[in-house]
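> forwarded from #structure-qc
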């Protein structure tokens, strides 16, 4: 130890001999590699994991399957087999509760050869899927907020809650432009009909998530806002020409790609201007996924399919077959596969027939592993379940919820300065709610300030 001894020569002369053993022990530990945890770079970790997997295990990394925390043991055993036998890359959790989900996450992670990426649809927070969690405003409400720093704050808080629950990917924001009022599936999930506002707020939400190490996912590429069909039920059709698509639908995606969005989800939509093949879903189109998204727009992150069990694609292609088509189109992660074993078999056969090369497969797996490294899964830690409910629902999180709704309130017109009401005792007041029972929280609060007659209208009421 000549360097350390020279550096501290004067110091060791000054200290008493009783301190020397401790000093020597410290210097020894600094120079002893076995006393330190080996730290791998991203490339080292990816290389070591990739080399440890068989072909079938590498294919398994492409799949993210649906998991629930409110189903039976039969469902749990099905997921266990997919994790331990087929080496799937991740899970997307749906209905259930936070503590139950955390326990299952820990269980499934304990079976995984490579730590799993855990994802959720949490557009307005964990409550989009889970009970006992906070509901934040839906995106159309957020669209009315003037200061986009508030949107960033929401993304940051949702990221905190996700990480606390062991969730790494939020399939948000939806940056579809709400240009069709008859849209049955987007609607209030959009920030609105102005492409600049949609892009700005989508970017703020994305940065709030990713600055706090939750991967954001822009969806539904190349734009699901102007459809009149629910892709869960059938394949929607968009008839706009390429010029309109470039000017409107693609604008927010270009903006978020420039702002370093880490993943994009491709929707199940038929757009003849992008691919003229009959009944071709954008998810399965190489012209859309590879040529447009990756090559033309320059996106280098992870590309997720929308759920492959949705009728927009599943009604036209068999399980396993649709997975292969999505992979050949250029997607990296196959979401909600209905038959993983069959899909793996078909992909292996496609590699043998050189429809896709093993090198192309490895590139996709490397992207998935790079995402896992960024998420910290190279140093995975189980979810701590103690105080989980309290941590997810703390006062700061609740205060943000109130602040967001307050900031979104908008006065459209205030004729003759009617608002605020100044004379309460001699003025007659009534309230009308649509879709809520009479005596709801809003009406009860109004009654604290003046005498009100309250009315309610059923959301399904006839004209």
């Amino acid at each position: 130890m000549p360097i350390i001894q020279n550096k501290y020569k004067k110091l060791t002369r000054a200290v008493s001999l009783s301190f020397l053993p401790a000093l020597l022990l410290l210097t020894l530990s600094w120079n002893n590699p076995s006393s330190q945890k080996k730290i791998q770079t991203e490339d080292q970790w990816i290389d070591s994991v990739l080399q440890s997997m068989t072909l079938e295990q590498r294919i398994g990394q492409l799949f993210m399957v649906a998991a629930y925390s409110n189903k039976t043991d039969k469902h749990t055993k099905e997921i266990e087999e997919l994790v331990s036998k087929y080496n799937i890359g991740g899970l997307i959790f749906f209905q259930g509760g936070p503590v139950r989900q955390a326990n299952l996450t820990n269980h499934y992670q304990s079976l995984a050869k490579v730590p799993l990426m855990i994802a959720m649809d949490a557009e307005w927070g964990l409550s989009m899927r889970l009970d006992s969690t906070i509901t934040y405003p839906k995106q159309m409400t957020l669209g009315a907020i003037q200061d986009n720093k508030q949107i960033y704050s929401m993304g940051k808080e949702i990221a905190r809650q996700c990480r606390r629950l062991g969730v790494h990917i939020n399939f948000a924001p939806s940056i579809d432009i709400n240009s069709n009022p008859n849209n049955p599936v987007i609607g209030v999930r959009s920030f609105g009909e102005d492409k600049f506002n949609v892009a700005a707020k989508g970017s703020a939400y994305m940065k709030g998530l990713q600055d706090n190490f939750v991967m954001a996912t822009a969806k539904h590429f190349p734009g699901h806002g102007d459809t009149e069909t629910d892709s869960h039920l059938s394949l929607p059709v968009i008839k706009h020409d390429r010029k309109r698509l470039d000017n409107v639908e693609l604008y927010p995606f270009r903006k978020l790609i420039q702002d370093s969005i880490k993943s994009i989800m491709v929707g199940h939509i038929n757009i003849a201007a992008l691919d003229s093949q009959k009944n071709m879903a954008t998810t399965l189109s190489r012209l859309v996924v590879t040529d447009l998204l990756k090559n033309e727009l320059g996106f280098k992150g992870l590309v997720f399919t929308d759920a492959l069990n949705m009728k927009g694609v599943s009604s036209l292609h068999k399980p396993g077959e649709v997975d292969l088509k999505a992979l050949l189109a250029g997607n990296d992660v196959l979401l909600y596969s209905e038959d993983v074993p069959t899909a793996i078999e078909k992909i292996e056969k496609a590699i043998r027939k050189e429809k896709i090369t093993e090198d192309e497969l490895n590139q996709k797996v490397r992207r998935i592993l790079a995402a896992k490294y960024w998420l910290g899964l190279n140093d995975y830690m189980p979810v701590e379940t103690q105080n989980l409910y309290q941590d997810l629902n703390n006062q700061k999180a609740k205060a943000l919820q109130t602040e967001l709704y307050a900031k979104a309130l908008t006065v459209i017109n205030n004729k003759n300065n009617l608002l605020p009401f100044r004379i309460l005792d001699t003025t007659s007041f009534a309230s009308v709610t649509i879709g809520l029972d009479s005596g709801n929280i809003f009406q009860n609060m109004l009654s604290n300030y003046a005498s009100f007659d309250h009315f309610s209208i059923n959301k399904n009421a006839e004209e």
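QC bot note: The chain is about 45% helix and 10% strand. Confidence is low (pLDDT under 50) at residues 1-37.
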